[in-house]
Task: inverse folding
């Protein structure tokens, strides 16, 4: 699955995009799995209330299942306009 | 409906005229243009706008469709830039055309409120002292509750 | 503040750009353009707009001053035509500039609501069947009560 | 004093502007005086709720005194914008 990071999440994790091989059932499971891997992930994901997630380019939430999802993106609250 | 997500500068006046010329039977056209504002300290050197290619167009398209479903509109225009901008540059623009002014105004405000908090753009301000991501404002999130 | 009451046609896009170029430190510019709308029956030949020279500029000036007193605005533009117009012609335009979008939107809507019912213009519609003065609408009068 | 008429009030009375020599104390007195003069005035002023009045180019009302006023204008509700 492709995992994308934007804004300060991208800066903390150090890459804009990576392939992740995971059996995580939900977004929250994926976050736990990545956070356990390396400190930079734990740091980026330390406060989930400051993060948003999109699944296949639609806003979603951390309880959502990853079944069939090809692209997950993590980013801070948006500041468009 | 026209949605433009581009790094290039645009001309708000030419866009307004092109938009108005393309609608007929509409008595009211409302436009909003957002401009990079100099900071109060006067030290803003640039505003870097990052976005999520693919999702951006999709998210804006959904917001524009929602506006067209809620109000009686002749057409909707959304332009949003990304990349490096400097104070005074146009950032974005929305325009709405409707038979009556109330629909045109409400739809334009709805579009702006949703673009602020639901379109995947992130702003980073670069000043002499360094660079900081602009934090989302609570009032922008609560602005959504009126719709 | 710029107030123009004139029979001549104007260019809304050029006016928007000129207005935006004249303000600095403003993040938000809202414009409204009113266009002569064809009737539902499709038989509108012309719209004659009569006004009260002298009082018109005075009344619009007071409305614009009131907007500047109520909201934090960088500038206000009001253009209103009189004379003979045909469907598709621009009738009038307002533009507001403010540091933030809420002020720019509210002030533009306030200006429109007051111009509708408090600026001395009267519209007469000329169709194949004859000519009729446009009646004031109750909803335009009640729109004032929200301010 | 100058008296001005606009829109259908102008059309009913037949002139856009005229000099009126009057001792009327209020707008309502002036309306009564003009209406008594000729049928066209009575017709134009038959329903005051459908009329507005401006004194020296400021919106006013029918109870207002005319003392010192140089210009009175009668017209239907405005339809700008």
Result:
């Amino acid at each position: 699955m492709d995992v994308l990071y934007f804004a300060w999440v991208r800066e903390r994790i150090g890459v804009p995009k990576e392939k992740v091989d995971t059996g995580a059932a939900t977004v929250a499971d994926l976050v736990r799995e990545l956070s356990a891997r390396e400190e930079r992930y734990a740091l980026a994901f330390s406060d989930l209330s400051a993060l948003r997630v999109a699944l296949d380019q639609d806003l979603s939430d951390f309880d959502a299942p990853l079944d069939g999802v090809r692209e997950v993106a993590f980013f801070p609250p948006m500041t468009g306009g | 409906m026209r949605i433009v997500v581009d790094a290039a500068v645009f001309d708000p006046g030419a866009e307004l005229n092109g938009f108005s010329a393309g609608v007929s039977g509409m008595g009211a056209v409302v436009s909003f243009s957002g401009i990079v504002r100099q900071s109060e300290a006067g030290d803003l050197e640039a505003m870097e706008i990052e976005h999520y290619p693919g999702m951006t167009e999709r998210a804006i398209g959904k917001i524009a469709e929602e506006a067209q479903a809620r109000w009686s509109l002749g057409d909707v225009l959304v332009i949003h830039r990304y990349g490096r901008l400097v104070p005074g540059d146009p950032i974005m623009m929305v325009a709405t055309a409707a038979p009556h002014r109330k629909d045109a105004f409400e739809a334009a405000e709805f579009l702006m409120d949703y673009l602020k908090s639901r379109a995947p753009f992130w702003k980073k301000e670069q000043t002499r002292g360094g660079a900081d991501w602009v934090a989302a404002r609570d009032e922008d999130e609560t602005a959504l509750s009126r719709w």
